[in-house]
Amino acid sequence: xxxxxxxxxxxxxxxxxxxxxxxxxxxxxxxxxxxxxxxxxxxxxxxxxxxxxxxxxxxxxxxxxxxxxxxxxxxxxxxxxxxxxxxxxxxxxxxxxxxxxxxxxxxxxxxxxxxxxxxxxxxxxxxxxxxxxxxxxxxxxxxxxxxxxxxxxxxxxxxxxxxxxxxxxxxxxxxxxxxxxxxxxxxxxxxxxxxxxxxxxxxxxxxxxxxxxxxxxxxxxxxxxxxxxxxxxxxxxxxxxxxxxxxxxxxxxxxxxxxxxxxxxxxxxxxxxxxxxxxxxxxxxxxxxxxxxxxxxxxxxxxxxxxxxxxxxxxxxx
Length: 318
Fold this sequence. Notes:
single chain; seven-stranded parallel β-sheet; 12 strands; globular
């Protein structure tokens, strides 16, 4: 019987992942935790704990008392926010990983999930169909922490035989959680603005194409990887996965089909430089080969599904 701990459950991924894991394992088997409140659905739907991802002994206590078998470490300071406070980003992102890696080496739980990101790539990485193994020279502190995390994960897997699994997430789009401070979060905010005010001011240029993924696909990929036969996995750092690549202009046009009066303007800021250092599309053939990864959503059906759900929460501007 699996007993799961999600650290950083109030964030963009955590909100959706906790609900999916509870549906899979049972509400009482998935312990959501964060240093702050999560959504009511997460907090009321099963065990919820106040837990600081930088408190090693606090994590140890939770793991031991609740007989945790799997940990999903989602606590992190994201790309744009991290550039405003690089030291905090380094401390949070790396210290939290170091703690759970050490607990994994002690054998306190069986399996760890560590989320990496396309931010681990950099301006010298091939931008089109970025391969699984390639040049990685990240230019943001968030990307640096993710690349460092990948190397630590690979080291612990090979040195200590720890069962650690990881995905390089593209930009993620969800209707359940608010934007969380990432460079790709315009692709969430643009839906909110389309329905609430009818206008979006984009902090990226109109042609800034980036790899994106709808949250249901990201959750599916995460759970499928964690369920995969360990012997079939050939990547012990972090797997490339791809969903759909688009620019701000392209997602605007897709939304405008449903919200005809919607308008957009462009005021690029420092996040444009971050976006330009990242890939435009991802080669995820290794994930497909090793554990059958394949996305369900493209641009049009993602946009339709996002608007359908968000219209229930906002007074629609049309």
